[in-house]
Give the backbone structure.
Amino acid sequence: MRRLLLTLQHAVAAPTRNPRLAVVIGRLLGLAFLVCFGTGLYSHFLQEPLPWMHFPTFPGNLYQFTQGIHITAGIACFPLILAKLYTVFPNLFETPPITGIGSLLARASIAVFVGASLVEITIGLLNTYQFYPWPFGFREVHFALSFVIIGSLAIHIGVKLPIIAKYWRKRDGYGPALAFDDEERAEINAPLVDVLPAPLQKVPGARQVSGLTGRLFRWIDAAPAEQPGTATSTSRRGFLVTVGVGVAAVVVLTAGQSFALLRPFNLFAPRVKGIGPQAVPVNRTAVAAQVTETAMAPDWALTLGNGSRTLSFSRAELLAMPQTTVDLPIACVEGWSQMATWTGVRLNELVRRVDAGQGAALRITSLEKEGGYRVTQMGSEYVGDDNTLVALTLNGETLDIDHGYPARMIAPGRPGVLQTKWLSKLEVLS
Amino acid sequence: MSGRELSGPGMSARTMRLTRTILIGVGVLGLVLGAVVLVSKQDLPAILRVAAWMLGAIILHDAILSPIVFLIGVVARHAGRRVSKVVLMIIQGGIVTGCLLMLLVVPEIYAKTLPIANDTVLPFDYAARLGFMWLGLAVLTAGVCVVYLRVAGRRNVVR
Ligand code: HEM
């Protein structure tokens, strides 16, 4: 067994599989994970704030930026994690596999880390296609695994810290791709005693060609992976260039869904800017939300309540009030976003009509028949902001029904799921 | 790790030990928090399915993907013994880049065959684009190889 593990380790050794490269790639991956974790937590708490939380309303495209970064850094994780696993692949055959309780826990935490990371990025990516082939809740599991990942990452860094510190800087060298001591080398090179006839066993180097595995390993050895000097540094450079090109390719060809600058290069993202009714993409249509009748009803009115005081406004009445125009993005939790121009009534002017004080928060109800975001809450920082509108037009036209006709909410810095469409009722919370 | 217990450059053994303790402590906390969140938000069968997916991901990578990549590397080294090592690497880089993009795009092609929410979700013809991507990548890779061979050839002549 030990022999097999050593031989496997030896076989998969390569100049690009060494601790220095593991550190170089690991740093980038760790950074990408932390960026995903930070932006992900921000997205989570925007949707499920703790009671004391207040969020910035400036700049108005803050969430567009943070969630765009989340998805983009997340996509960059694919090449990075595969590269990282590539550099450490020989460690899989480490021998002895386990030396004690400490090493058992260390290896277990790596297994958890690798498994959780692969699942996290996969379900995250597929979620942006609105494709859910897994038998568990996306948001719940994506959220829980993010702690598991960051936790097992911290353990991993703690365990490997001496090696990480050693190879942190380039001038500290690359170290051996794999260090076999003499005894291990002897074992790798030892004759396969059982197979060879006794006289042959004495011949130096007579170990190899015995059985299929022997022949296979000999064949592998004939294509030497470890070369001295310049060839080794060429393959290291080649490896890093490949990783760089891979990351650049997946990022540049998809990030146009989140960042306008990269839009011309958007070949593969699940979303494109500038399409859809009124040049704004849609997540939930009026048909899906079952509002095609209620939203078009001639007697539609927006009710606004503060305790016992209730007012209601028809669309014509809203249009007759002072109108404000703002440029704010729809920024989806799935990472795509679209800048747009909205015109409507300032929310803070509306709530003043029911004598809501400064610092009032709102409960917002949509005409939607069902769904997790039919009833949501809006913190006082958004209610009071001059850029928060009950929007009536989009890009100069009457709001399309798929964008929330007769009236929708648009506020700075909030995820799209909280920009409630097809407004029905606003209640001031004291 | 055993036997390689050394302090890094510019870090005393004590700082090293302290940093490691803190990292591992934070890590255990994170794991506990993750477990608590998972248990509070999902029932037992769902948690088992998450674990099965994690295990499946590890097996898929370690037992299927990695050996394939390894074998392709060995075959390439065998086949390419007479080809310049750099040219071989450029070709490998092209293939790896294409495979990475394919990894992201193939699920889109499949997801588009299922009922989708509306026309603004998955709007492209991803299969066609994937084909053109491979074509473009092949041309690009060939171009880089040619440029490299020219430059390398000229360098050899000059010398
Ligand atoms: C290690 C990598 C990652 C970490 C640590 C991470 C972490 C998080 C966290 C904490 C959230 C908030 C969950 C919630 O609202 O309860 C989140 C949301 C999200 N993440 Fe990630 N994530 C990672 C990778 C990815 C990747 C690769 C993608 C896609 C390419 C992705 C897509 C999403 C999406 C779409 C959401 C929004 C979910 C929603 O609110 O409906 N994530 N992420």
Notes: The two ends of chain B are 47 Å apart (CA to CA). Residues 112 and 121 of chain B are 9 Å apart (CA to CA). Chain B has two domains: 1-41, 44-158.
